Amino acid sequence: MVPDTPDPRDGSDGDSPPPGDPGGAPTAAGNPDDSSPHSFPWHVSRVTDRIDAILPLALVPLLTSLLQVGNVQRALDPGSGVSINVEFAFPSPLLDLWTFADPPPPSVSRRRPTVGDSPPGSDPFADPTGSTGATGTGGTGVPIETPLDGVGIPLESVGAAAGAWILLAILAYVAIASVLAAVYVGGLDRRLRRDPAAIVACASEYAPRFVLYNLVAIGAILLLVPFALVSPALIILALPAVVVVGYLFYAVPFLFVVADAPFVEAFRLSYGFAVGERAYLAFGLWHVGVAVVSSIVLSLLVSAGPGGFLLALALAVPLSLVLTAATVSFLRDLVDSAPSAAQ
């Protein structure tokens, strides 16, 4: 089970179960004296019991939600449409509002022109309302997400200058996301063990591995682009493989912290847990189930105008914090209960 440092303030021995069973007897969430990994509800209960220790780290999902300016503008625009989505999300280090809810489609008046857009009125066959595609009147576009916003760029207009800009945007995103993830996951792990968050130490120790991880993830996405250009149906056919890969390796970025695993070793450990530990599967399914329900509720709220957006943000930030912290708690529990996997 998860070793905890005793806290003299509450008189606990660090191994007590979540509150609710004063006798310390086994509960539905798991027996605290059992060496096997505890369940998803047990870890959620453990995290919520220590919410005061990790609450300052809620700034991370709050900032990542608000820094996606384009999404925020669309959610605040009363003329935007309605977007209801269902997200089957495995654990991820940087959950936020936009993990669970897509922003509503923009109103016509707020559609942002992109590189390659034709001037208004230059296309006699264009919709008179001005509602063209994301990249103008023709061509294939690729959305490029930056830490602040997304930009749609048609492939046929990408030259050396645009390619350099895209590369810089990707590197900036990787650097910022990696430092945030290292500080966030490392801080959660330390605070759950009642240690100081040690932001600088977490960034310096874990960020390089998160950089490699994010570069590999982006590279894998870029490998799918040629197939999308041939036929979008090929991407749909690849979805089962994407789900399997997501399941097998959802633990990788967390293992950089909880197991202090080197880059390649984290993939080996995650794969071993995925194929050999039922608790790993159960936790992943619980997480997906919570994400599905949450995404429906949050996407409805985001589509309800400014008031709905603020309510969605107020719900999504603590939800993201608790889910990520529960994943950190679970994987440390799993690593500690399966020492042979780390050898």
Key structural traits:
single chain; 343 residues; mainly alpha; two-stranded antiparallel ribbon; 13 helices; DUF4013 domain-containing protein; transmembrane; membrane; transmembrane helix
How does this structure look, described?
This protein has one domain (40-114, 140-342). 56% of the residues lie in helices and 3% in strands. The chain has 13 helices and 2 strands. The protein has a two-stranded antiparallel ribbon. The radius of gyration is 22 Å and the shape is globular. The protein starts with 39 loop residues before the first helix and ends in a 6-residue tail after the last helix. Mean pLDDT is 80; it is low at 5-33 and 113-152. Keywords: Membrane, Transmembrane, Transmembrane helix. The chain crosses the membrane at residues 164-189, 210-229, 235-258, 279-302, 308-331.
- How confident overall, as mean pLDDT? 80
Determine the structural class based on helices, strands and strand pairing.
Answer: mainly alpha
Strands side by side in the biggest sheet: 1-2
The biggest beta sheet reads:
2 strands, antiparallel
Q: Give the % helix.
A: 55-70%
Q: In percent, how much strand structure appears in the residues?
A: under 5%
Poorly predicted ranges: 5-33, 113-152
Shape: globular
Transmembrane segments: 164-189, 210-229, 235-258, 279-302, 308-331
Biased composition (Low complexity): 24-34
Biased composition (Basic and acidic residues): 1-12
Region (Disordered): 1-41, 105-141
